[in-house]
Design brief:
Length: 209
């Protein structure tokens, strides 16, 4: 199981079991590539990209699960199908997960992408799994809806998505109109975290892990 953010890993606490390991890669394709290189050397039985995602469909709400039938890279268009056995065991809506090159912060950003949901890392992990002949699945939970606008918070976070409290406070003082959006994002992330925990637990149980 590979997630990008510390908050995603915390959401999965308590799901550790023999034969199942959790890795935190850090945000973005470059960090995912570094993690994937190390991971495939261990020859795992499977790789599951998990964590949060943004909705590309207006009907998706925070906390909805997306089990990707395929992952598509935004720039190259390369598509990576899910392992059929893991996909059959996964809960959640089926659809295409688009791995973007930048955070899709606005409805306009998301409207330019075609799929069910968007993330940053899954296509990189899927490529590494395919090249190594390792079964792959992406199972993610929606943290931000299609219509949401995400504040430009990347400068406030470290590589693992952990916020610098001082920078967050300064940002809120400089941009008070962004405070409701920050609160909404926090609520969406908490809902996504609860759904992710339940979804991964269900997946592992159905697979007999």
């Amino acid at each position: 199981m590979v997630c990008a953010l510390d908050v995603e890993r915390r959401a999965l606490a308590g799901l550790e079991r023999p034969g199942v390991r959790f890795h935190v890669s850090g945000m973005g394709a470059e960090a995912a590539a570094t993690a994937a290189t190390r991971l495939v050397e261990e020859r795992p039985r499977a790789i599951v990209a998990t964590g949060f995602c943004g909705a590309l469909m207006p009907i998706l709400e925070a906390g909805d699960l997306v089990a990707a039938e395929r992952v598509v890279h935004e720039n190259t268009g390369d598509a990576f199908p899910a392992d059929e056995v893991m996909l059959a065991a996964a809960p959640g809506r089926r659809g295409t997960l688009v791995s973007a090159t930048h955070v899709a912060r606005t409805p306009a950003d998301r409207g330019a992408l075609h799929g069910a949901a968007v993330d940053l890392e899954s296509a990189t992990l899927a490529r590494a799994a395919r090249d190594a002949g390792i079964p792959f699945l992406a199972l993610r939970a929606v943290s931000d809806r299609f219509q949401d606008r995400i504040p430009d918070i990347l400068p406030l976070l470290d590589a693992y998505g952990r916020p610098d409290r001082g920078r967050v406070a300064a940002f809120a003082l400089r941009h008070p109109r962004e405070i409701p959006r920050l609160i909404r994002l926090g609520r969406g992330s908490r809902r996504a975290g609860r759904a992710l925990h339940e979804g991964v637990d269900t997946l592992l149980a159905r697979l007999g892990a």
